[in-house]
């Protein structure tokens, strides 16, 4: 099957859904490509790092306006492409097409939402069913998610991951050794990478209130950086009202790239431009005009039977 | 009358039934062991705590507080063991990582760790079970684990008998308020108001809300009570901004300590024990932990 990826990109940018057989082909091609990528992808600066986008397609297009088109700009997406927003299908289809078209210019790593159980709960499954009339498309995408890399290193100095680290994944080598080709479990090293959060109040690991992963403190971050000879940890996973948050004496940064999250949080978003000398510059943006017109992702929930 | 809110606004908490066996409460001067034993023996989840010196209620003691204490005490026990292995330290709790929760509670009560005094940086703090040795850095501020301070974590809220049920329902609907009391003329608790008590009232008055009774939903968002549970859960979960694991679970090989920490962190009442394929095997609850702590 010969596919014109530029045409696919053009169509999906116009919110024209690709047909099921084409989605299947693209996902299979993506799996073949990702099979060759390691757990920890090595990237050279300069690169622009993007946090959670959560199906906010118009805001993803805004990211390419603000940060520059791919392949002119190199991109690293830190996961959570789907769920919550209205256009998860279009978002993941676009990113997948860009990856296939420009494999060395865009890197996609996995987030906790790239998982069967989570996408069934937070909207992607429902959206696939609504837009395609069948859950088969969801199956194609979630099978592909199992192949996504799980971390990245920028010039061997900046460690990038979706969530964070855990007691069983305190070295980059430990992450390299993980069997990633499976759904994200609720505990263990893969869960820790996808679900953990920094805690500015604590020093060490604690069980997370999310029910998966851990919270980790300054001592853990310093030890990780020292042991693995990295300067900084970049991650996403947590909403930041200003679009980003820097912790632990500038050793950890959270990047958040979904403005007005869930069409109701009123937050800013950012992308992080890492320059050739690893200097970091935040490019902050607000929701795209088209996103402003989107209804909230869920109806208002009444607190009680009132 | 059409809506549940109309029904609840026309009735008062005084109309709710009082408990058949009277009100159980503890005094703030009791030890933690005595207080948790009361919860266990009476098979209740929480109890109001009365300060006789102040003549007022200071909060509620909840079974969840035992979880928090167990997590803290275990971490302190491990810290003490680490310090003890590095040399002698005054006031170090016995370095026994396997110390039962029961013995920790008893030790905290007997050794005076439960009295409320200010923490003195760099020296043994009588107000907590944390340990500070002169040779080690001053510890981060530790919570004080005695009955008054645990009780204050769950603020005491009360309503008079003529308060409308609607007001009680709104307070209990707020996630931070799990317990509500009705005070009698003597200023003492005469009734505990819970969500289940209000639900029971609604159940007894379904004939007054025929639309609700006929399951044609009267929720403002018009969604049907006939929706499947997964659709309902999706709505509820997506209303939360922070993601949480779809199911709180543990594996058979996990320790009780891990279960305690997970229950404490998630504020869940129970966890599923699952096998390697995530198939459920058992359920472990806060009450199970409480029984373990007091029966062990």
UniProtKB/TrEMBL annotation, chain A:
Recall the GO molecular function terms of this protein's record.
Answer: metal ion binding; protein serine/threonine phosphatase activity
Give the EC number(s) under which this enzyme is classified. 3.1.3.16
Q: What are the protein's UniProt keywords? A: Hydrolase, Manganese, Metal-binding
User: Which leading EC class covers this enzyme?
Assistant: hydrolase
Give the matching Pfam families: Metallophos
Q: What is this protein called?
A: Serine/threonine-protein phosphatase
Key word Hydrolase present in the record? yes
Reactions mediated catalytically: O-phospho-L-threonyl-[protein] + H2O = L-threonyl-[protein] + phosphate
InterPro entries membership: Calcineurin-like_PHP, Metallo-depent_PP-like, PPA2-like, Ser/Thr-sp_prot-phosphatase
Per UniProt, residues of the Serine/threonine specific protein phosphatases domain are 109-114
Q: Which CDD domains match?
A: MPP_PP2A_PP4_PP6
As for family, the record states:
Belongs to the PPP phosphatase family.
UniProt keyword annotation of Hydrolase present: yes
Species the sequence originates in: Fonticula alba
From TrEMBL, chain B:
In the UniProt record, the signal sequence range is none
The record's section on InterPro entries has: AMPK_gamma/SDS23_families, CBS_dom, CBS_dom_sf
Domain of life where this protein originates: Eukaryota
Pfam families per the record? CBS
Every CBS domain range: 17-78, 242-296
Q: Where are the transmembrane segments?
A: none
Keyword annotations for this protein, in alphabetical order, are: CBS domain, Repeat
Q: Cite the SUPFAM superfamilies for this sequence.
A: CBS-domain pair
**UniProt-recorded name of the protein:** CBS domain-containing protein
Query: What is the species listed in this Swiss-Prot or TrEMBL entry?
Result: Fonticula alba
């Amino acid at each position: 099957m010969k596919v014109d990826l530029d045409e696919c990109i053009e169509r999906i940018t116009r919110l024209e859904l690709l047909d099921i057989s084409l989605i299947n082909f693209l996902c299979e091609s993506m799996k073949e490509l990702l099979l060759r990528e390691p757990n920890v992808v090595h990237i050279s600066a300069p690169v622009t790092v993007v946090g959670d986008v959560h199906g906010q397609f118009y805001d993803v297009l805004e990211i390419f306006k603000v940060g520059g088109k791919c392949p002119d700009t190199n991109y690293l997406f830190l996961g959570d492409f789907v769920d919550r927003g209205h256009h998860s299908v279009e978002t993941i289809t676009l990113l997948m097409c860009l990856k296939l078209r420009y494999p060395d210019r865009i890197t996609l790593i996995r987030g906790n939402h790239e998982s069967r159980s989570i996408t069934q709960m937070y909207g992607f499954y429902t959206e696939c069913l609504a837009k395609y009339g069948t859950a088969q498309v969801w199956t194609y995408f979630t099978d592909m998610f199992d192949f996504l890399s799980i971390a990245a290193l920028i010039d061997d100095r900046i460690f990038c991951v979706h969530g964070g680290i855990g007691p069983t994944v305190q070295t980059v080598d430990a992450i390299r050794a993980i069997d990633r080709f499976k759904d994200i479990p609720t505990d263990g090293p893969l869960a820790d990478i996808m679900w953990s959060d920094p805690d500015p109040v604590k020093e060490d690991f604690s069980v997370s209130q999310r029910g998966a992963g851990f919270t980790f403190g300054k001592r853990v971050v310093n030890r990780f950086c020292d042991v693995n000879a990295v300067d900084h940890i970049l991650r996403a996973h947590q909403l930041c009202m200003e679009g980003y948050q820097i912790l632990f004496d500038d050793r950890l940064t959270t990047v958040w790239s979904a403005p007005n999250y869930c069409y109701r949080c009123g937050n800013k978003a950012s992308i992080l431009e890492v320059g050739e000398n690893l200097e970091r510059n935040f490019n902050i943006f607000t929701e795209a005009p088209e996103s402003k017109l989107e209804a909230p992702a869920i109806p208002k929930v009444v607190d009680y039977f009132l | 009358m059409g809506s549940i809110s109309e029904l609840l606004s026309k009735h008062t908490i005084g109309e709710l039934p009082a408990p058949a066996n009277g009100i159980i409460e503890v005094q703030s001067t009791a030890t933690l062991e005595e207080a948790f034993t009361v919860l266990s023996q009476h098979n209740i989840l929480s109890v109001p705590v009365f300060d006789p010196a102040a003549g007022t209620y200071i909060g509620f003691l909840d079974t969840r507080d035992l979880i928090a204490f167990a997590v803290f005490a275990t971490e302190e026990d491990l810290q003490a063991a680490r310090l003890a292995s590095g040399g002698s330290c005054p006031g170090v709790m016995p370095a026994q990582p396997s110390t039962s929760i029961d013995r920790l509670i008893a030790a905290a009560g007997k050794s005076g760790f439960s009295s409320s005094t200010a923490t003195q940086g760099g020296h043994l703090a009588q107000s907590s079970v944390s340990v500070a040795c002169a040779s080690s850095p001053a510890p981060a501020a530790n919570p004080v684990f005695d009955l008054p301070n645990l009780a204050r974590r769950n603020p005491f809220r009360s309503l008079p008998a003529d308060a409308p049920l609607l007001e009680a329902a709104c307070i209990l609907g707020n996630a931070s308020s799990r317990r509500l009391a009705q005070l009698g003329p003597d200023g003492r608790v005469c009734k505990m108001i819970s969500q289940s008590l209000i639900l029971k009232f609604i159940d007894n008055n379904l004939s007054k809300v025929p639309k609700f009774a006929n399951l044609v939903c009267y929720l403002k968002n018009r969604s049907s009570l006939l929706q499947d549970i997964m659709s309902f859960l999706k709505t509820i979960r997506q209303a939360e901004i922070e993601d949480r694991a779809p199911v709180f679970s543990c594996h058979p090989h996990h320790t009780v300590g891990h279960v305690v920490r997970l229950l404490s962190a998630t504020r869940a009442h129970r966890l599923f024990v699952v096998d390697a394929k995530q198939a459920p095997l058992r359920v472990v609850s806060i009450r199970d932990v409480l029984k373990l702590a007091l029966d062990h």
